[in-house]
C-alpha cells in the first residue's frame, strides 16, 4: 500500500500522461483490469477479511510478496510476456488475452513503484504498526479531494475494477509463478479469484456515501479491538493525524513514482521489441522490496 484510491489515481495519471498512443489505447480497452492491477498483491490482504475467519494465510502471503525484490518479480513478468509472444511482426498482438495481460503487468509495476518509493516516508512518519492503514486512508481522502475534487467516501470503488472470467487463468498463472519460484509456496488454484471476490465484498461493506452505516460503525468502534477508521472513510474523516505539509511531502514521492513508472514501462517495451536483453532490462530495475527496503 498506499491504499486503493491513491493507486487508482496513480494509474489515471499514468494513462493521461502516456505518450505512447498504442499503450494508452490498450489501457483504455482494459480500464477496469488496469485498475485492478494497480492494486498489486494488496488484494490478498482482503481474502477472508471477516473477523470470524481465522485463516489469514492469503494475507500472510501478501505480506511475503511485499518483501520480495522488485527485480525478481520483474524477471517473472518479463519472461511471461516474452513466452506468450506478445509481439507479432513488430506489432502488439491482437489477441485480447495477451493484450490484457500486458496491461495488468504494467499496472502491477506502477503499484510496486509507488509502494517502494512512498513506503519509507509513510513508515517514518507514524505509519508503522496499527496506524499504517489508517494513514493511507487519510492519504486517499487528501489525494482524491485535491486531484478529483471529490470525497473518496462517496465514490463506489467496485465500479472502478473488474476481473473478467476471460482473464482469470492468466492472472492466476502469474501469481502461481511468484508463489512457487520466489516464495517457494504451493499455489492453491482460485486464491486470486477468491481474494478479488472478498475485495468487492469489503468495498461494498464499507462504502457508505450517505453515512447510513457511520453511526453503527462509530458505536462498534468503541468495543471492537481494531480501529475501524482504518476501513471506513467516513470514520477516517473524523480523525486527524498528519499536518498539511506531510501530505505535500507525500505528493513529491507520488510524483517521483509516476516518473519512475514511465521509465520501467519503456524498459518493458524495449525488452519485448528485443532492443535490449533480459539482463540489460533487469539491470535497470530496482532491487528494493515494496516497503522500499534494499534486498
Describe, in short, the structure shown.
The chain has 295 residues and is an all-alpha fold. Helices cover 60% and strands 1% of the residues. Pfam families: Zn_dep_PLPC.
Report what the structure shows.
- The chain has one domain (4-283).
- With 295 residues, the chain is an all-alpha fold.
- Helices cover 60% and strands 1% of the residues.
- Helix 1 (4-16) packs parallel to helix 7 (132-148), helix 5 runs antiparallel to helix 6 (96-124) and helix 5 packs across helix 8.
- The protein starts with a helix and ends in a 12-residue tail after the last helix.
- The protein has a two-stranded antiparallel sheet.
- Strand 1 and strand 2 form a beta hairpin.
- It is built from 13 helices and two strands.
- The relative contact order is 0.18.
List the helices and strands and how they pair.
Layout: H1 4-16, H2 21-29, H3 31-37, H4 57-65, H5 70-83, E1 87-88, E2 91-92, H6 96-124, H7 132-148, H8 168-183, H9 191-206, H10 214-220, H11 233-236, H12 244-272, H13 278-283
Antiparallel strand pairs: 1-2
Helix pairs in contact: 1-7, 3-6, 5-6, 5-8, 6-12
Amino acid at each position: 500500500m498506499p491504499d486503493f484510491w491513491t493507486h487508482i489515481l496513480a494509474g489515471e495519471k499514468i494513462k493521461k500522461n502516456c505518450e505512447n498512443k498504442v499503450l494508452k489505447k490498450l489501457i483504455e480497452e482494459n480500464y477496469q483490469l488496469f485498475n485492478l492491477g494497480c492494486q498489486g498483491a494488496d488484494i490478498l490482504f482482503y481474502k477472508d477479511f471477516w473477523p470470524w475467519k481465522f485463516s489469514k494465510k492469503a494475507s500472510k502471503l501478501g505480506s511475503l510478496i511485499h518483501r520480495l525484490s522488485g527485480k525478481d518479480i520483474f524477471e517473472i513478468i518479463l519472461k511471461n510476456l516474452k513466452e506468450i509472444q506478445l509481439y507479432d511482426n513488430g506489432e502488439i498482438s491482437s489477441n485480447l488475452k495477451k493484450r490484457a495481460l500486458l496491461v495488468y503487468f504494467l499496472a502491477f509495476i506502477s503499484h510496486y513503484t509507488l509502494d517502494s518509493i512512498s513506503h519509507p516516508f509513510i513508515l517514518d512518519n507514524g505509519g508503522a504498526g496499527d496506524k499504517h492503514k489508517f494513514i493511507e486512508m487519510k492519504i486517499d481522502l487528501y489525494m482524491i479531494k485535491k486531484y478529483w475534487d471529490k470525497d473518496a467516501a462517496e465514490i463506489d470503488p467496485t465500479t472502478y475494477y473488474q476481473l473478467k472470467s476471460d482473464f482469470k487463468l492468466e492472472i492466476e498463472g502469474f501469481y502461481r509463478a511468484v508463489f512457487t519460484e520466489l516464495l517457494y509456496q504451493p499455489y492453491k488454484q482460485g486464491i486470486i479469484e477468491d481474494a478479488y471476490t472478498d475485495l468487492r465484498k469489503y468495498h461494498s461493506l464499507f462504502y457508505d456515501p450517505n453515512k447510513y452505516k457511520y453511526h453503527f460503525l462509530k458505536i462498534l468502534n468503541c468495543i471492537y479491538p481494531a480501529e475501524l477508521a482504518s476501513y471506513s472513510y467516513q470514520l477516517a474523516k473524523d480523525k486527524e493525524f498528519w499536518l498539511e505539509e506531510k501530505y505535500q511531502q507525500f505528493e513529491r514521492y507520488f510524483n517521483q513514482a509516476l516518473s519512475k513508472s514511465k521509465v520501467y514501462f519503456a524498459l518493458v517495451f524495449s525488452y519485448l521489441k528485443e532492443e535490449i536483453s533480459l539482463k540489460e532490462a533487469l539491470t535497470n530495475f530496482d532491487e528494493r522490496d515494496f516497503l522500499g527496503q534494499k534486498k
